[in-house]
Design brief:
By secondary structure, the protein is mainly beta. The chain has strands at about 1-5, 10, 15-25, 30-40, 45-50, 55-60, 65-70, 75-80, 90-95, 110-115, 115-120. It is built from no helices and 11 strands. Strands 2, 4, 5, 6, 9, 10 and 11 form a 7-stranded mixed β-sheet that branches. Strands 1-3-8-7 form a 4-stranded antiparallel β-sheet, with no helix packed on it.
């Protein structure tokens, strides 16, 4: 399969962005999808994931501000990011998982990755 992220950009604190991840070669019925991010000098962090039935999992750092969703008809994963903070600046990646432990938001449980899209929050 192939994953292609888009929608990143430069925004000010408090603003919003919506990231998209176009997926090909995946069947949502047997894959969970997730969003990860990596800031310079930091480890990759799992921030949100969604199972085929719509069950979601969020990291505490984004809970209440970010919303993950998927449009099965368009084979597209989304991440709506509201109330962005300076510390949200990172490269954002989408990924696919066939693990039952997808909800732990660990990189090791996700086997396919997109190339990433940069999100920069700056005043």
């Amino acid at each position: 399969g192939q994953l292609v992220e888009s929608g990143g950009g430069l925004v000010q604190p408090g603003e919003s962005l919506r990231l998209s991840c176009a997926a090909s070669g995946y069947t949502y019925s047997n894959s969970s999808m997730g969003w990860f991010r990596q800031a310079p000098g930091k480890e990759r962090e799992g921030i949100a994931a969604i199972r085929s039935d719509g069950t979601t999992s969020y990291a505490d750092s984004v809970k209440g501000r970010f919303t993950i969703s998927q449009d099965n008809a368009k084979n597209t994963l989304y991440l709506q990011m509201n109330s962005l903070k300076l510390e949200d600046t990172a490269m954002y990646y989408c990924a696919a998982s066939r693990s039952t432990l997808w909800w732990l938001l660990r990189s090791i449980d996700f086997g396919d990755w997109g190339q990433g899209t940069q999100v920069t929050v700056s005043s």
